[in-house]
Amino acid sequence: MKKNEILNKSLELFAGKGYFGTHMDDIAKAVGIKKASLYSHYSGKESIFTAIFNDILEDYSSFIDNLTAYSEELNCLEKLVSIFSGYLNNCKNNNKMVFWDRYYYYPPEYLKDYILQKTYEIEMLFINKITNIIEHGIKNGNIRNVPANDVALSFYYMMIGFSMTVKFYDEKDIEKDIVKCTTVFLDGIRN
Q: Within a 10 A sphere around the Cβ of 110, how many other Cβ atoms?
């Protein structure tokens, strides 16, 4: 239980104060334990940070699997809208995504290559799952015959670009813009 609390409080601190602005004293105080007690769970700030990042990767991978899971209730176009909306909703008020965004662009040097590599791997996983949905749509005749991977890549980057703005929008505006973006995009690939 204490390990989870340490990770949760550390996540908040790292997301809000940054890697160099967060100290073991801050973490101990936020958790309500002595600094020395932290060392019985983690060897230092680096190991806490790495554990948080790996936890985020695991959660995000499960999120992608669930988000892109096949559904007989939705055709592929509806599934793409569902993915787009689900992804953006996951980005709103999510400290894990704030953490990941921050440290993708400004990683601690000791973990830079690891963060970049793992981010690339999970991006490719997500794009491949979207590609499979588009290929299914092409086979079913819902999507015109276009290079599925190119469409998936475009869809993914549209989604990523939109996600960078969700913290600045009102909930109603986001939903309206999701409809506008997905409608224009899907009209371009619809058969």
A: 10
The span from the CA of 85 to the CA of 93, in Å, is 15
pLDDT single digits (tens) 76-88: 999 999 999 999 9
- Does residue 167 have a pLDDT over 80? no
Please enumerate in sequence order all residues whose Cβ is within 8 A of that of 74, keeping only pairs 6 or more positions apart, or say none.
Answer: 82
CB atoms within 10 A of CB 164: 10
Residues β-bridged to residue 143: 190
For residue 74, give Cα distances in angstroms to 79, 89, 126, 175, 182.
6, 19, 19, 19, 15
The distance in angstroms from the start CA to the end CA of the chain is: 52
Structure tokens at 146: 């276009």
pLDDT for the residue numbered 168: 75
Q: How many other CB atoms sit within 10 Å of the CB of residue 39?
A: 13
